[in-house]
Design goal:
Two copies of one chain form a homodimer. By secondary structure, chain A is an all-alpha fold. Chain A is built from nine helices and no strands. Chain A has helices at residues 5-22, 30-37, 41-47, 51-69, 78-95, 97-105, 112-132, 140-163, 168-187. In chain A, α4 runs parallel beside α7. The longest helix of chain A has 24 residues, at 140-163. The N and C termini of chain A lie far apart (64 Å). The model of chain A has no long low-confidence stretch (mean pLDDT 90). At the A-B interface, α4, α6, α7, α8 and α9 of A face α4, α6, α7, α8 and α9 of B.
Chain lengths: 189, 189
């Protein structure tokens, strides 16, 4: 079946998401992507000139989905919004375990584009946290506390993906209780 | 002056530490290292066959120093040990700002050797935290809480290196108060 250009691009990204979910950057070969998509390497390169370009666009698409899937209605109660957002975040982490680990574990070289996508995603979460307590621009101690709590969530996600020695619900509970415990630290100074 | 093999290697690592402190992996050229050391590229490659090998050894040496410099005497009171260790950690972060940011910010490819060094360093800190409260092998909730708190310290370090909008002492205070707030979250379940 011939696909339109947009549909083909979307199909390739979809495939990239599922491949990078189970395998890390180093383990995915561009030949495998073309084969799995049933297209020639030439066509794949038409959409994504290099493996890096493909990867960056897959990461961008993953980030877009993470932001979308963790969105909750304004009308929901704050505690419930947080719990719902966190449960969906963990669902995403489980679904994209391999890329999540590779992206956040740090490595030898930096990559400006992926770093910018990761940072923009964190900023969206920081902005939601600030809005959640009715602030536009929190002062430095609170901003750092929110930032640190995101670090807490990311670090425990990586550990949990490796060991899985705590039930899902207990990890979610740890995350929301950590936030509740940390906010007073920032504001009570 | 002719140096012994060990002394030459140590001199090159020392130089690498100071170069990677101010510039990231991508910004350091192996030619600059040879020039700054006053040695031929051939000699540099004799000690470190590739730029990556050199970088990994510099990271290993940096990690060794971080672990050593944050060590505190057993006889010191626990609160003072924590405060001293954290102040030295922050001093190290400030001194090695560029590499610290590159290493921990995540990127496109993973590197097994640097990832292993980072993980071993975190495990040493986790072991110290556990010993600090008299435990050898904390249960999952406490281990994850310590792990998350390390994530908190790393994430706030990265933010603080970018913005520096909080006095040093206030950041140190935030770190120790965060730990004090988080431990009960893990144990009160």
């Amino acid at each position: 079946m011939r696909l339109t250009s947009d549909a083909r691009r979307a199909q390739l990204l979809e495939l990239g998401l599922s491949m990078f979910a189970k395998r890390s950057w180093d383990e995915v070969q561009i030949d495998d992507v073309a084969e799995a998509a049933g297209v020639s390497k030439g066509l794949l390169y038409h959409y994504f000139p290099t493996k890096r370009d493909f990867y960056v666009e897959v990461v961008r698409e993953a980030a877009r989905r993470l932001i979308e899937t963790t969105e909750t209605p304004d009308a929901m109660a704050p505690v419930e919004r947080l719990a719902t957002g966190l449960a969906r975040y963990l669902g995403f982490v489980e679904q994209h375990a391999a890329s999540y680990s590779t992206l956040l574990r740090g490595g030898i070289g930096s990559d400006a584009d992926t770093a910018a996508i990761i940072e923009a995603t964190r900023r969206e979460f920081l902005a939601r946290l600030a809005r959640g307590i009715g602030l536009d621009e929190p002062a430095a101690p609170l901003r750092l506390t929110f930032r640190g709590w995101l670090g807490f969530v990311e670090a425990t996600s990586l550990d949990w993906l490796d060991r899985r020695d705590l039930p899902r619900e207990a990890l979610l509970d740890l995350w929301s209780r950590a936030l509740t415990a940390l906010v007073p630290v920032a504001v009570s100074r």
